[in-house]
Specification:
mainly alpha; 83% helix; globular; MetI-like; transmembrane helix; MetI-like_sf; cell membrane
């Protein structure tokens, strides 16, 4: 009887055996983990080395050769062709002045002390009008992008307004507001708001739906979702819309200043251009055109180009 009672107890697994098996498994896993971790560390170090090599800043000489020299050569070529056309007498000098004559006309305006005031008048108007267009166009773009009935109703209208030449709004604005600054700002808004809104809509349409779902999971809904998920993800398209909006606002401003002329409106670049036309002063006309072009290019290079490069580099789209 004693042997039959002790048989079951001998066949039971002992707790010490389970602990030994578990510790052996942990030891084996610990031995394998450093090897896989070292492989991942080596792979990460290699990728970092490649990325560091790719993002190394080029030398100043290389930057000058690639980015500064081409536009300088283009300007020199245009001036050379312009001077050649003047020397060959393709047009009378009162219709096609030489580059030196245009420079003299601008220098005369500089000596009068008026050119800086003229440029500032137009730049300040353009900046204020663009700022108001930004405040109006951003929520409008978000509304059109996220609310389907609003998009179906307003989306085609925004596209139509964007394709409409801004100069077409000048006569209507003059009738509505008279020869006042409100006319100029109304034309600027009607030219810039559709571009800003459509740019934001295009940026939102390119967002990966997984990003929006992830934002909802972590609680980014409503205004928090717009601030922390929607706008950052749509930033490349939004910046492109801002660039286009500034171009449209600048063009709209020049059209408004050129047509809506009044002593109460002051003298901007558009007014300077119209003054040259009134006096048949072709050097002044070309000089005003060059100033308008230089201001537009300067705003693009100093404001929008750095912002766009930073956004694209942050997204890994530019090195």
């Amino acid at each position: 009887m004693a042997s039959t009672e002790t048989q079951p107890t001998a066949s039971r697994p002992r707790p010490d055996d389970d602990e030994k098996a578990t510790s052996a498994a942990v030891t084996t896993a610990a031995r394998e983990t450093p090897a896989s971790g070292s492989d991942l560390a080596g792979l990460g170090a290699g990728l970092d080395a490649l990325d560091t090599h790719a993002t190394a800043r080029p030398a100043l000489r290389e930057v000058l050769r690639r980015k500064v020299l081409p536009p300088v050569l283009a300007v020199v070529l245009v001036l050379a062709l312009w001077q050649a056309a003047f020397a060959l007498g393709l047009k009378p000098d009162y219709q096609l002045p030489s580059p030196l004559m245009v420079w003299d006309a601008l220098a005369e305006e500089w000596y009068k002390g008026t050119i800086l005031g003229v440029v500032w008048q137009s730049v300040s108007r353009g900046a204020l009008g663009f700022g108001v267009a930004l405040v109006v166009g951003t929520p409008l773009g978000l509304l059109v992008a996220r609310v389907r009935p609003v998009r179906a109703a307003i989306g085609p209208i925004l596209s139509g307004l964007q394709s409409l030449p801004s100069v077409a709004w000048v006569p209507a604005a003059i009738i509505w507001f008279g020869l006042t600054n409100a006319t100029i700002y109304a034309v600027v808004l009607l030219g810039a708001v559709p571009s800003i809104a459509n740019g934001l809509v295009a940026g939102v349409d390119r967002i990966d739906p997984l990003h929006l779902r992830a934002g909802k999971v972590i609680g980014a809904r409503g205004l928090r979702g717009v601030r922390h998920v929607l706008l950052p993800a749509a930033l490349p398209g939004y910046v492109a819309g801002l660039k286009q909006g500034w171009a449209f606002s600048w063009r709209s401003l020049m059209a408004a200043e050129l047509i809506a002329t009044s002593p109460e409106l002051g003298v901007g670049l558009g007014r300077l251009l119209d003054t040259g036309r009134s006096y048949q002063d072709m050097p002044l006309v070309l000089g005003a055109i060059l100033l308008i072009l230089l201001v537009g290019i300067g705003i693009e290079l100093l404001v929008f180009a750095p912002v766009e490069r930073r956004v694209l580099r942050h997204r890994g789209l530019l090195r």
